[in-house]
Design goal:
Elements: H1 2-19, E1 31-34, E2 37-42, E3 47-56, E4 62-64, E5 67-71, E6 78-79, E7 96-97, E8 103-105, E9 110-118, E10 126-133, H2 140-145, E11 152-159, E12 167-174, E13 178-179, E14 184-192, E15 201-207, E16 213-218, E17 231-238, E18 246-256, E19 261-271, H3 274-323, H4 331-347, H5 349-353, E20 360-366, E21 397-403, E22 411-416
Length: 420
Amino acid sequence: MPKRLITGFIVLLVLGGIFSVPTLSRADDSLLIAPAVLDRKAKARDILNETIVVANTTDHALHLYPVVDNVAAADGTRSFDDPSKTDLSTSLANWIFFTRGLIELQPGERRTLDLRIEVNLNAKPGMYHALISFPAGNTRPEAEAAARNAPSLAVNLEVLDDAKEILQLNNFNADASFFFRSPAAFSYTLENIGNRPLAPEGSIIIYDGGGREIGTGALNPEGAILGPGDKKTFSNIWRPDVFRFGRYKAYLDLHYGNTTARLQDTAFFWMVPWYVLLILLIFLTALGFFVANLVHRRYALWHHTRVRAIAARSEDLARRLAAVPPPMPPSTTLRPATRFISREFRAVPAVQKAPLPPVQRAVVTAPPPRPPQANLVAAPAPRPPRSQPPAPPARARRLTVEAGPAETPIRVIDIEHYLA
C-alpha cells in the first residue's frame, strides 16, 4: 500500500512537470533598471528627454505593464489622478510621458526606453516625486495588483521659480478735462504680460493747485485678478467734500505681486462750478461787446479820415485841371490854321506893337486861309473818298489871344475851329 501511494505521487509530479504551463515571474529581483533614481530640475514649460534601460536577468520571458504614480512627500502615499479631474500644475505623474503598453522581455534581453517630462506651463515652484513601476503579469489588472512590490524607477523633479509678475499700465486719465459737477471720474487700463495671475492694489491721490492732498480713492476695490495675457480697464470716482473751482492733479500709485512692483502716473483736470461758468460767460460777453464797439469806432474814425483825405486830393486835382489849357485840336486841322496865324500876325505889326494891359484878352477874327504860296510848303489836303460828298468850305476861325505889356510877343491860348 505505501509503495503504491509513493509510486502514484511520483507519477503525478512527473506528469505535472510535463504538461503544466509555465507562469510569469513577478520580477522582484529579476529586472534590472538603470538608473534607479532620476533627479532633475526644470522650469515651467520646460521639456526633459530621458532614456532608461531595463534588462531581464532571468531565464524566462517577462511581460511588464508600466505604472506611473505620484508620491506624496509627506507620507509616501502613491496615487494617480485622472487628468480631467486633477490640478495639472502639481501632478508630476501627468507630466511624464512613458509607454504604458505591454513590454515583453526575453531572457537576458536589454531594452532602452524613452521618457519625456513636459513641465506644465502653470507649474508651481517646489519639489515633486513620482514612481514608475514595472510589474509583471499575464494581464494588466494582475500586474497592477502587484505594482507596489515591483521594481521601480524614482523620479524627483524640482520646479524652479520662474515667475514673471509684470503688469503694464497702458493709460491713465480723467474721463473729462472739465468737470462741472461732482464726482470726478478716472479710468486706467492694465495688461498682464507675465506668467502669473496678479491682483492690482493701490490708490489714487488728489492734489489741489497748491500741491496739498485733498482726497484719495482705492484702486480695484472688487479685487479683480488679471491672468496671464489678460487686459482690463478699471474705473474710479472721487467725490470732493467741497466742489471748488481750480486745476487738480490725480496721482495713481499701484502695486502688485510678491515683489511689490509699483506703477505710477498722473492726470490733470479742472473743476468748474456752474456759478463760476455763468460769471465767466457774462464777462466774456461784455468783453466781446466792448471790443466790437472799440473796433467799430476805430474803423469809423479811420474811414472818415480817409474820405476827407480823398476829397481834399480831389479838390486839389480839380483846381489843377481847371488851370490847364484845353487840349489842341488834331494836327490834321491845325496845320493850315497855325501857319495862317503865324503868317497873318507877322503881316500885321500894328497889332503886335500895340500897348495892351498886362493881362488882357482879345478876340481876333481871321479870314479863311488862302491857298499856299510858292515860298510856303503846305500840307497836302487829304482827298475824300469817292463815296463821300465833298467837304464844305471852311469858314472864319476865331482866335483867342492873350497880350502882355508892350513890346512882348502875343501868345495864342485858344483856337476855336468851326466847320460848316
